[in-house]
Structure formats: C-alpha cells, structure tokens
Amino acid sequence: VNLECLPPYVRLPVFDENPVLVVAPAPGDRILPPPPGCGNAVRVGATVRFGALAEREDGTFEDVTAAATWEVSPADAGEIVAGRFTARREGTAEVLASFGGWRADPISLRIVRDPAVVALSIYPVDGAVLPNFDAVRDGAPVSARPPEFCGSCGYALTVLVGDTVRFGATARYETGEWADVTELVAWQSSAPAVARIEEGGILTALAPGECAITATLAGLISDPVGVRVVAEATLLDLSIYQEGQDRALAVGEQAFFRARAEYDVGFGRDVTGEVRWRSSDPAVGDFREPGVFDARARGDVEVWAELEGKGSNRIPLEVFESSDMEYCDPAHVNRAVWSDAFDRVVLESDCDHYTPPDIAHFRFTVTERQRPVGIFDPCLDLYVYRGSELVRTIRDEGCGRDFALPATPATEERLRYQLSAFWDLKDEKGEVVPPGVYTVRGRFYLYSDPVVQLSIAVVQPNGRVPCVPNECGNGCGYVPKCGDTGPPAVCPTVCVPLCECPRGWGITPDGDCERCAEECCAEGSTCPAGVPPCNPPTPSCCRLGEICPPEVPACPEVCCREGDVCTPELPACPPAPTPTAPPSGRIPCVPNECGNGCGYVPKCGDTGPPAVCPTVCVPLCECPPGWGITPGGDCERCAPTPLPSFTPVAEGACFLGANCDRAILRTTRRFCCYLASVSAAPLPVGWCPADQWDPSASRCANCQPACEPGPEGCCEPGRACSPGLPPCDSASSSE
Questions:
Q1: How many CB atoms are closer than 10 A to CB 308?
Q2: Which pLDDT value is given to residue 489?
Q3: pTM higher than 0.85 for the full model?
Q4: Which residues in 387-491 belong to E strands, given as ranges?
Q5: Using CA atoms, how far apart are residues 433 and 442, in angstroms rounded to an integer?
Q6: 186 pLDDT exceeds 90?
Q7: Burial annotation 502-533 (CB, 10 A radius, 16+ → b, else e)
Q8: Which helix (H) or strand (E) holds 673?
Q9: Cα–Cα distance between 334 and 346 in angstroms, integer?
Q10: Helix (H, G, I), strand (E, B) or coil at 111
C-alpha cells in the first residue's frame, strides 16, 4: 500500500491481538486532495512511504511493514528500507514485499526528473474563497473533494469599485507535489472593463458588474473564480454586545452597548454611532445617546439596534428599584439568609403573620462579597407552600442550574440586586387561603440555584391559626402550651392522635394555636445559655452564615473555618479551644434533665447506643464531644480516632475548572479526587497545591487534575486515585 495515498482518517495501528484495519472516516473528517507522493510517478531524490498489511484467516489485518522483506526491481532504481523508498534514477521500477512465505503484488513506479503539471488551481488570497482542487488530467476531470466554488453556480467574492484583491495560483504535479506558481501563470479576466488582473495576480475592480478570473500554465486552464464588483457594500449582519457583565441595573444606572455591522465585501466595522438604538419599553429604560442605556423605572426590557432596515440581536435587561420596608416588629424581623464566600441573599417579609385581606410584602436582596467572573443576570422563582403542597406561584422565571465561576476580589460588599414582591393571601384559583402556617420559598439563580425560605402565618381575626391533625403523636397525648415546661418525663411508645401546633405556637383551651412570646433575656439580667437578648444591638458587620439585615455590611474574613468555602489566600483558622482538664486529666460531666431514652452516655472506645431507644426523657450527666464517661462519673479525654482517608486537611485547594478557576474548599488531594468522582458539575475539578497558589494574582501557577494519573486499572501507593480502584499490588496479585 502506498501510504502517501491514505487520507488522514485511515489509521494503521499495531495490535497485540485481533488487529483490525480502521478505514472509516471519523465524524467531521474532510476528504482532502491527494498528498505529495500519491501516484505512480516519483521525482528523482524523493522518498515515498509504503506499508504492508497481512490478512488473517478471520478477515482481520495486521500492519507488518517493519517485519516484511522489501525489494526494488531493478535494484539501481532506488533503495527501500522498512517501506521507505528513495528514487535514484529516471526510469521505471517495481516495489515488492514478502512476509511469512507470502508475496504481495508489486507496485509499479515511474521515476521522473522534471514532473509534468496535471492540475492548476487559483484562489483569492484576500477573499473568502478556498482553493478549488478540481483539475483536468489526461482529458478527464479528477476531483478529490466536492468543489468549494463553481463559477456558474454563483459568486463567492464581492469587491468594491476601486479595491484590489491578490490572487494566488497552485500547480499540482504528476508526482503529487505542489508548488506556488502565482508568478508563472498567465492571468485572464472575462470582463476587463469590470475587473482587470495583472501579472502577479493583482485584481483591480473598475466598474459594477460580474466577471470570471482564470489562469493558464503549460496548456492547463484553471477553474474560474467568480467576482462581483459593486459600487457600495451591502449590509449582511448587525449585532450588538454589552460592555460589562450586568444584566440587572438599579434605577438611575447606565449600561453601555456597541454595534457592529458585517458587509458582503468581507469586512466589518463599528456602527455604534450610526444605528438607531431601540428599547421595548422606553418607560423602563431608553437611549439618550448612542449605545448608552438609562435605567428609568422598575421592569423588564429588551434592547436592540436597527440599520438599513435590518435589526440586531436582542439583549434582555432587568431594572430594579431599591426600596425600604416597614416592619411590623422591627425587633423581630422575619428574615432568612443564604450566603457563601461570594454573595449574600436575604429574603424577608414585613410581618410574620397576616389576616385577610392583608397583603404580604417580601423583599429579595443580593449583595456581593466578591465579584465572580461572568454575566450577572439574577433570577428568582418565588413560591408559597403549605407543607409539601404548592399554594401559589408569586414569581416564576424558570431559574436554571448552572456551574460556579471564578471570582475576582472586591474591596467591600455592595448591593447588586433587589426585588419587591407581594402576596394577596390567595391561592392559584384566586380564593383566600385558610388560616395556617405557610412557607415562602425563593429559588434563585446567580451562579448556581440554591433555595432561601421563610415562614409566615395566615391567622384568624383573633390572631390564631388552627391546629394540624397528627394521627400518631407522642404517647402522652402532649401538645405544647405557651409557657409550659414540656412533656412528662416518661411517655409510652404508642400512637396517640393529636392536633398539633407549628413550632413557636401553643395550643389553647379552644383547640386553636396561639403564637407564644419569644423567650428573651431582659437587659441587665443574667441570660441562660441559648436565650437571646430581648433587644439585640445591630451588628456593625455580618459574619458568614449569620442572619443580618441587608444594610449591614459583611465582616472581612481573616481566616477560613473548617468546612467554609473561602478564597485560597485566606489562612486556615486555628482549631476551636477544648475544655481545660485539671491535673487528674478529667472534667465533671454536665447534667441534662431530658437525655435519650436509653440513658446512654458515651464511653471511650464503645460502639454507640442501642439501635432503638424509647422516646422518653431520662436525666443524664453528659460529656463533651471527644470525652467519655468514667465509672466514677467524671469525663476523660478519649484517644483520637484515626481520621478517615478523605478528611480535609489544608494541603491545597480543590477548584472547579481545568485552570483552577473557582475554589471549592481547602482539602487533601485524595478528598479533591473523591469530589471529582461524584461531581455533577459540567466543569472538570482541578487541584492546586498550597505552594502553587499565587495570592497576588489570585491564580494557581500549576493547576493539576484532581485525580493523579497512574497505571490503568489500579492505584499506586500514595496517589490520589478515583474511589473504587484497587491498590496496584492487590490488583496485580489478584491476577
């Protein structure tokens, strides 16, 4: 086989067993023109590669090029080594190969010193037309691929009057070799008054019209290239793009856009100042000057541009208006918070309970701690549930799931988006909902789609809500009342039907539920553990995970706590202090009036409580985590339990993105590899060793795959391999 003639998609791999010759083109492959050396003509001094294939009885093939015996006849025509033939003199020759007692049919060659031209192609160097490899050979058309352009099928090159275009010419020889012959061919134009072409392939457009350009060399005529000359360019496409990344603007802010036009003569230009800028709702926002959008009022809007009767793509924007909220009880605001290292999201309501026909007012606020890279296009779906039943859809934008993006440092937290929403206490059918406790869930999209939710109560005129039946309550038949001390110490483990109240509410003698006063500690009093002060001061800053008003800025992070998502430059926080033990090494246990029903207190080294404990209160004296009870009733420190292999340790950081774009958490490479194996994110998971992080540039100098490469099918000792791979020693021994 003459390997020079094989298209790029033909592979001849050597297999240890069951060899197969793969000849099917891969998806997307294109059939290219024959490469140099394909044919029976070889230039003196040139080298041509040959291959030998052995066909087996089962119909498979094996590449035996290196093992075959190669010959050239006559011997002085050239030499061949491992299938590579080099021609030495003019004339004819045969190449032969033998293997395992079999002899292949010979391939005849013609060796020439001055090869003849067999095909001529021309193409515009400055235009959009690719070379056309259609050629004439021995009077018959030879085509290695469908023609890119046909002069009689239409024009592929448009030129403005007065412009020039460079053409090139390529000759293919009988040996399969190619050469640039732009300076050697004779150029012709079918209409010199429209466009003339001179030596060197320089075409000049003279007047509107059409013509065909050809070239001749050694009696061969190239295929024509059509040229259309126009007096002015025709607009083909108009597009706009936004400078910046914000698709949400506050009232009074501006967004900046540019417009670009593409023309049929093959060039594009900026037309920001020439187009007509349009807004779908000028009341929400409009353009006072080219490309500058002014946000005027709350709402959604689309912007686009128009030029010469052609419209551009449309870009959606949302204009929001920050608003104040009057709380029913400013000291106890009904508020829920979601936050990470990049954003803080607050969902709050003006009251925590309403009586029809009240209107519930909600406010959704997004503030940024750091600026992630990407387009800020916030989305919010807001629903009302009663238990698991969807009662009302307040807002549904179809917020979808996306992946996290890298961040750029920000100097301070700032408002990025705010939205007000309202609920008229009616269901999807427009009917007033019955009294009860409802959950308002906000599923939002910034760079992912978590959920923030809060509870509100729709109450009767007397401020109460009905209790909720429970077919299998506690064995005492106990329903909390406001101010009581809890259930009896021991309740039987049986089902007793109850009508229960939501958390924070108590049953009344009438069987309704009333809201219990929140227990708090008055100023100047000694507060029991876990009881908040009655009038807590407004914090100066909000720590990660705290519930704070939107106007309270985020506290600067000085260290990264275990389990937090932090930027890699933050150092790890020191471990939490442990109880100080006296010289005996033991500390007293802590009484608990209502422990578990088994009366179980952990001892060092035991395996835990029984599988089933009754749901009753048993007074206990307990020990802190990591300590165990002794026979004498004190607590002793237990020996540390060996850490699992995937426990995070600050050896480096795990990232989303092959270039370590966004940090997930500090951890070991083994745990990062485990995260990669279970990750559903569309980005790969990367690993950055601690010594490779550059805090000044906020990037990883040497981002590596989360899982270390190793021998296929097993994990070498000390490597971070995907879970489930056996150790290499056990894998080899099992064989």
A1: 11
A2: 61
A3: no
A4: 389-395, 407-408, 414-423, 436-445, 451-458, 465-466, 468-473
A5: 20
A6: yes
A7: eebbbbeeeebbbbbeeebeeeeeeeeeeeee
A8: helix 669-678
A9: 11
A10: strand
